[in-house]
Amino acid sequence: MFIDFHSHILPQIDDGSSSVEESIELLKMEAEQGITHVVATPHFYAHHDSPEKFLARRAEAKARLDEAMEKYPGLPRVSLGAEVYFFRGISDSDILSELTIDNKRYILIEMPEAPWTDGMYSELEAIATRRGITPIMAHMDRYIRPLKTYRIPERFEELPVLVQANASFFLRGGFTTKMALKLLKEDKIQLIGSDCHNLSVRPPRIGSALEVIEKELGKKYIDRILEYGSSVFDD
Ligand SMILES: [Fe+2]
User: Fold this and answer.
1) What burial class does residue 12 get, using C-beta atoms within 10 Å of its C-beta: 0-12 exposed, 13-18 middle, 19+ buried?
2) Which of 93, 134, 158, 204 is deepest in the core (most CB within 10 A)?
3) What is the pTM of this model?
């Protein structure tokens, strides 16, 4: 039961899938790679979208996808979430609980460019401690390279968050793949997402990432990702 925690698989809601047909093809690819559960995480930008409009668009896109999926047995289950771009005041926002994965206790948060301020770290902490919602930090690999530290900021180790890396982090080869494997081994990455957008340039590639992880580190690290994944859906 492998879960893709980051995907733009819903049709025509953001810069991801451009049609129901493309969404179905993306889900078929996920299924072929052994993914049984995909979290749909369309972009949400609080500064130029309203939660009501976003939720209505998301529900409409999911309904269209559900209808099409009926014809294709064996596709992964699709849960609803959002990739919520960080904004000042996020920890006090009423929107948060509506944007959690399956309306439960985890939320995918996309950070602006690093480095981050103390205030931002405090808000992430407050989301967990005051709101009881665990932030999942989206595609942490995207911030590591520009930071040129080649490590996850130490403050994250103290925060009650989970770190998600994209499958592509494990597939770039050379130093980057080594870094991805090291961070996974050190338990600094807990979840993996495809961050798939389309069939052409950003298809889902978790299957290949898992092959690299199993070959280089062994199956026990796959099992650990599985455990973290299922804990998100345990109540
Ligand atoms: Fe994304």
Assistant:
1) middle
2) 204
3) 0.96
DSSP string, 134-147: EEEETTTHHHHHHH
Give me the residue spans of the domains in the chain: 2-233
Under CATH, to which class is 2-233 assigned?
alpha beta
Rounded to the nearest whole angstrom, what is the distance from the C-alpha of residue 158 to the centroid of ligand 1?
24
- Which residues have a Cβ under 8 Å from the Cβ of 134 and sit 6 or more positions away? 105, 106, 107, 127, 128, 160, 161, 162
Q: 10-residue block means of pLDDT along the chain (235 residues)?
A: 96 97 98 98 96 97 98 97 97 94 97 87 95 96 69 79 96 91 94 97 97 98 97 87
Contact 14, 197 (CB under 8 A): no
Helix, strand, or coil here: 27? helix
> Ligand 1 mean position to 112 CA, how many Å?
13
Distance 109 CA to ligand 1 centre (A): 10
- 121 φ/ψ angles, rounded to the nearest 5 degrees: -60, -40
Amino acid symbol at 193: G
